[in-house]
Records
---
Amino acid sequence: VSLLGITTVGLGVLLLSKGLLVFGSVRLEPQAAVMAVCILGVAVFIGFLAEPFTAKQRAAGRADLGIALTGALPWIELSCSAVALSMSASFVSLAAATLVARVLFVALTVLLSMSSVAGVYFEWGAVELSQIGALLRKGVAFQAFPLGNALSNQALLMIVGTELGPVAVAVFGTARTLARLGKQIMELKYQA
């Protein structure tokens, strides 16, 4: 399964970068497209770091805190995007804004987890080094599909924005969100 996940992510990134280079207009340079894809990939991986701390909150009976933080993430991204666009209107600055938003989200999650859930903690001494290899394979397999999905969603918006402009991005993003409403409700229930 992990080989399939890694292959999926690798092919997704390859097709994404080639798709951006093929479908990109004059406004999007190939180096900027590749840089934006790389920054978005790093942002997705950093976002995964919040998962153990939201799990810690659920374990201590404070799932509401994790849900509230997860619900605040789009607002953090919107704020960071607005600041980035006011400074430089480019895909790379938007990708960097997403990265900054994810770093802020993880930092908030860690800080609130440490302050509100003192009884549950992580300790390096409890880590069994012999299990890291097996857990790493399962972890990569588990995270590969969300990473590919996130890169696919962001890249599709970048392509729509490049080819059709900002109004089309707003319309497309709204339509996609409405289409995914059922999935988002189930994800919210799962998080609870």
---
Amino acid sequence: GSGVPGEPWRLDFDGIDDVVTVGAGTLAGLDLAASVEMRARMPADVQTRSYLIEWLADTTPPFAGMSLAVEAGKLRIFLGSWVDLVDVQPSSWIRIVAVKKPGYWLVEVDGVTVGSGSVENSGAQTTELVLGAGTFAGIGQYSEHAAFSVPEFRVWNRAPSPANPSVLAPLDPPPSADAPRLPPATPTPATP
């Protein structure tokens, strides 16, 4: 991106072989509580399954951990089976917050809750955390790559509080928002 509103600096994934990984077992405590927050430009092809992020406790069913993908025009979360959350438009910018803790899960898109429940299928990060593909086939084996863009991404080993569910929301509205913006300030020289 060019660094202007609507075109932020970002990681662009080609949907072929681009991934960003965090080593297996690096992030402790994600089985107790996990929150993912990202701004992302959805793939141009939202019909074919492509993983936005995945980490797993084990690469066998029920594939506990955190898996977010797009497929059939929907943002989806894996909770032992795929759950459709909300329609997504090709190449659109959205802000996603996904939270899992024992007995609870929640997903918000652009500040609106699009899914929640009590069967969270959470798990420790024993595989790599993979941004841009699935890792369900095993460590170092990536598939169903996403051709998408990510300017901001965070993972926490806790659930955000209701008072502050996000650090992104108050700081930087999604680029799709037509919020008024102040022009850049021009420094005024100090007078002696």
